Amino acid sequence: MPLHVIKHPLVQHKLGLMREADISTKSFRELTNELGNLLTYEATSDFELEPNTITSWSGDAIEVQKLKGKKVTVVPILRAGIGMLDGVLDLIPSAKVSVVGLYRDEETLEPVPYFQKLVKDIDQRIALVIDPMLATGGTMVATIDMLKQKGCEQIRVLVLVAAPEGVDKVLEAHPDVHIYAAALDSHLNEHGYIVPGLGDAGDKIFGTR
Ligand code: URA
What we know:
The chain is of the alpha/beta class. It has helices spanning about 10-20, 25-45, 80-90, 140-150, 165-175, 200-205; strands spanning about 5, 50-55, 60-65, 70-75, 95, 100-105, 110-115, 125-130, 135, 155-160, 180-185, 185-190, 195. One of its GO terms (molecular function) is GTP binding.
């Protein structure tokens, strides 16, 4: 099943702190990055290694393991995805960043891209798409469509909280994509918020609530 809910105690503890009603902007922002970091650790756990011979501190030639040419692009979805970016890049500092932004058309209710600045060689990279909340899944599906149109074949989604509705929508459209989440919550309410969720993650990260 390409949904991975990360049960690690640190992940669950940090997510629990984020659910507090009166959390400060500073704490919410820090925890968003920390969870971005821990989700990245999990989402890259199958990256291949290859042996490399190096000269060690003692002058001896020894064999060490290095990542086998996996090139990554991190894809934050504006605006809230930016909140996870530093946490991801802390672990993969050589990754390139491809930013996308989508708005919802008021008539069709479909997500429409208004900004995309993708790395040129995205067809040769693994994409880690980041957005704290996977709610209806419409924006995520449209983002994955966009990446696949550019030839990107290996796509992983990192979210803090997922709603079952969003997971179903993404996996129905893109069954090859793996989703890494700190929690799979109950449902969406009538306003499209995840329950119990975190509230408006973008507002909490940027302090605009
Ligand atoms: N976006 C959010 O920030 N929160 C939700 O619950 C759903 C979408």
